[in-house]
Design goal:
540 residues; alpha+beta; five-stranded antiparallel β-sheet
Length: 540
């Protein structure tokens, strides 16, 4: 119980990582608040400086206007006019909203001032001597009424002699309310900016969350680490590509299989840098899935699979996985045998089912003799076919393949003939038998399809010849189809097909790939069956 309580208390002390939306709101809001503070401070400084300059210019303009008045010059020369000038200056001060207008003589003693008790006293602030030397300027100084912004202008008599000065001032404390009013406006706009930033952060967070499938940053980091570990421990090489063939991800195992430097995993590459002979083919029809596709690259046979990468229903590239074929050798051989056996059983089952129905019908009709005769003919025909194959073709895998193709052709109403001159001993090389099965199987399938397409012109017929010399295996596959035309190069490209459907277009490409891997060759000619003849030569 104590341990449980302690564990629960420790668990409660561990802080859960913040969600992405929360982080964005905090970051964006914090950034906007910081920007608002800096921007507000800058605007405050500019506004304050602008107001001070404006007030100073106003003070200097009023002082200049007063200094040019003849009444002021006359008052400085005739003390008897001081009372009248004081009243006039006070009226002018109220009209201009100035806090004070002071007129001083050439000794800087006041002859006009808002406070009559200060008349005759020296002007305060220490900033009047420059005006008595003929300068016009704006100053900020501490006077008898407080700190103020002043405009000071000298007064001249008719002979252009300086006889005094005029000082017009606005107290700093009277300017502050104007600045405070601007600050309130700035703060209001700043708060509005922060609110808009929060709303924008929420919307951005939702968009980002949807784009990353609702995952949080810590989950993405964990998935990335797991993915990297999984990909680099797989026996298959993995290549992830953009739609244009640029490599996004390349595992170390893929580099090993393709015999490329490990440094390639950190470089910007194209698929053509890794599989130059097959890049164009692999980048075509990217939505079409390929599983267990064989090709020859890096001086070895590879088993490759291709899958389309989809993001929100849009094609975002392809994923390639590849392994050396020799790692799947035993399983592939067994699968080849099982496929041929299964095809044979399927065809024979269908064929014998029809014959059994016929025999049953003959027995029911009382035609027992005809039923017995049909059974004898069927038994003799099948036994003769199997005996002939086993006698001429000593390799059981190829014999099984040919029996399966024979029954498949029979089911499709195509005559599949094994040339009586055919003769082939057992193939002992393990790599060779799988390639021969792939080559011969694809050629026979294509020949059957070609013969069926020309069935309206002549009876579908396929002839297979199997032979050998001391150094070479020879296969001839002839059909009664329409031939292959004059452009023999294009038929071996992966995108070529004379049939419709996404499942077609790789049969002859597989033949070429297997022939290249074992150093074989192929010749194309015309058959006496009116179709094409494909002759294959494979060195033992």
């Amino acid at each position: 119980m104590k341990y449980t309580k302690k564990r629960n208390s420790l668990h409660s002390m561990v802080k859960k990582p913040k969600r992405l939306e929360t982080r964005l709101i905090i970051w964006v809001t914090g950034l906007c608040v910081l920007q608002a503070i800096l921007f507000g401070g800058l605007v405050y400084q500019i506004t304050a400086q602008s107001l001070h300059n404006h007030i100073g210019d106003k003070a200097l303009a009023v002082a200049t206007s007063i200094a040019s008045s003849k009444d002021v010059a006359l008052a400085l020369q005739e003390p008897s006019n001081l009372v009248a000038i004081n009243q006039k200056i006070e009226n002018l001060r109220q009209l201009t909203d100035a806090d004070f207008i002071v007129i001083g003589d050439k000794n800087a003693h006041r002859i006009a001032h808002p406070d009559r008790n200060k008349l005759g006293q020296p002007m305060v602030g220490g900033d009047s001597q420059a005006a008595l030397r003929g300068e016009r300027y704006i100053s900020v100084a501490q006077g008898s009424l407080g700190e103020s912004i002043r405009g000071k202008v000298p007064v001249y008599d008719e002979q252009q002699n300086i006889i005094g000065l005029v000082s017009v001032g606005f107290l700093v404390q009277s300017v502050e309310p104007l600045i405070q009013a601007r600050i309130v406006e700035i703060v209001a706009w700043g708060l509005l900016l922060v609110v808009l930033s929060i709303l924008a952060a929420v919307l951005i967070g939702q968009r980002v969350r949807n784009a990353i499938f609702g995952l949080q940053p810590d989950e993405i980091a964990r998935l990335f680490s797991e993915q990297d570990a999984i990909l680099n421990t797989m026996r298959s090489g993995v290549i992830a590509l953009d739609p244009d063939g640029r490599v996004r991800k390349l595992t170390q195992r893929a580099c090993e299989i393709l015999e490329k430097p490990t440094a390639y995993t950190e470089q910007d590459l194209l698929l053509s840098d890794l599989l130059p002979e097959h890049a164009d083919f692999l980048l075509r029809n990217q939505r079409r899935k390929m599983v267990g596709f064989e090709l020859f690259a890096a001086d070895k046979r590879l088993v490759l699979s291709r899958f389309s990468l989809q993001v929100q229903g849009q094609n975002d590239g392809i994923l390639l996985t590849l392994r050396p074929a020799d790692e799947l050798e035993y399983m592939s051989q067994q699968l080849t045998k099982m496929q041929a056996f299964a095809e044979l059983l399927r065809v024979q089952t269908h064929d014998y089912s029809n014959k059994l129905n016929l025999i049953g019908a003959l027995i029911q009709m009382g035609e027992t003799d005809k039923a017995i005769e049909l059974i004898g003919q069927e038994s003799q025909g099948s036994q003769a076919q199997i005996h002939h194959l086993l006698e001429r073709i000593q390799d059981p895998v190829l014999a099984g393949l040919l029996v399966g193709k024979y029954h498949k052709a029979r089911e499709l109403n195509v005559i599949l003939e094994l040339n009586p001159d055919s003769l082939l001993s057992e193939i002992t090389h393990k790599d060779m038998i799988e390639r021969v099965v792939s080559i011969l199987g694809n050629l026979i399938d294509n020949a059957i399809d070609a013969a069926i397409r020309a069935a309206e012109l002549r009876k579908p017929h396929v002839r297979v010849t199997v032979d050998e010399t001391s150094k070479t295996l020879l296969f001839d596959v002839e059909d009664s189809g329409m031939g292959l035309g004059s452009d023999h190069e294009v038929i071996f490209t992966p995108q070529y097909s004379s049939k419709s459907g996404a499942e077609h277009g790789v049969g002859l490409y597989l033949v070429k790939t297997n022939l290249d891997s074992c150093g074989g060759s192929l010749e194309i000619g015309e058959s006496d069956l009116k179709g094409a003849r494909l002759s294959v030569y494979i060195p033992k």
